[in-house]
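Progress report, Aim 2. The chain analyzed during this reporting quarter is listed below.
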Amino acid sequence: MSNAFAINTNVQAQQAFQNLQNTNDQLSQLRERLTTGLRINEASDDAAGFQIANQLEAKTGAQGQALRNIGDAKSALGTAEGALDSQLSILQSAKEKATQAANGSLSQDERDAIAGELNELASEVNDIQENTKFNGKQLLSGGSATKDSTGAKSFKFQTGTGSDNQGTGQFEVKLANSGTTELGLGGTLNLGTTEGREQALSVDQGDFGNSSGAGNLSSTLVTGNPTAAITGSAAVGADTDGSGNLKGDLEGGEFNISVTNDSTGGDLTFQVEKGGEVIRTATKSVGTSATDTNLTLESNGASEKIEVNVGQAFVDGDVAAGNTKEFTVEVTDGKLGDRLEGSSNPSDARDIISDIDGAINTVTSELSDIGASQNRLSFKEGNLETAKTNLSSAQSRIEDADFAQTQTEVAKLQVQQQSGTAQLAQANAAGQSVLSLLGG
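Predicted structure tokens for the chain:
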């Protein structure tokens, strides 16, 4: 019990000050909650709650990004679906033309005209395949390195917050290549003949169109060295299957080739691009006496490859020192309408009808698979939204401030603060009563 008549130590004032300080600290904490809207602003407010709330926040943040990933995945699949729809429309038109060509009442000129139109339709199918991209990534086309054993290209989307490859982590979608080769619409080639190579390999001379040195690239690359135009594990033609199409995983397509003179004598640097991506760079000797002159355009990693003999096509001086020129090589299987050219047999047109029916079945099956994947993504999206809402609710119960309760406590503490301030003033003045004893 404190001595009321001691003036050296005012215990009553110290107790009043301590109680007032506690009231101020609590009031400061409650005001912080009202300004932030959070019951827990630092770990000391609620150590266990702080840990749980932050773990929940990490989960809901990851779920929010997973939802955005699902949106991107649906957009990518929507892009692929739109391209396949366009290809399907082209195939339906091609079937109409092939059905027309099968009619025995047509003249050969009319059948040849239909053949030309079928070839253009097939070229458009390939163009759609090469140009279908999402964020720069090709969806319906890719080399053997990006495909699985079934010939499909795999895309893995992070649709969950887990690190595994199952439902809580990644969602895999496989998109098959949809060019005429994969759809079975390529004609029969005989790559062992000059005509067969010319049919499979065409050249746009580009910057070399008026070159006096490189000459006719189309003629030189296709026929100048028959053993190098298209090669494989053995002689010309080894890269074709039993039907004469490009062998194995070889896709062919359009290759843009940049030729740079690096000023190292007779060597030229060749950069091969396909679909806007650089796939190969090589330095080759040029001239009639050069060695190691075959430039690989495509390889499946095994023995099958497509290459051109650039050493025989170029000589030193075709490209000035420090300069770059370009040309384009297109390698394709026989085109869809080639079997009608010069053919008076309606059965050739019926064979094309059968091939187109197979291609339509392939495309519609791929569209069905994409639709099923989109449905799964929609279910994942809905489930993630529900889980995110529930976790956010749990985080709110732990972390968010109850404004009604907090404001009530603030009002109480404000009264205590006023009362404590008054009591501290009275305690400080209590020592003056001792002076009356000295006056006596």
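The mean pLDDT is 78. The two ends are 27 Å apart (CA to CA). These observations will guide the mutagenesis work planned for the next reporting period.
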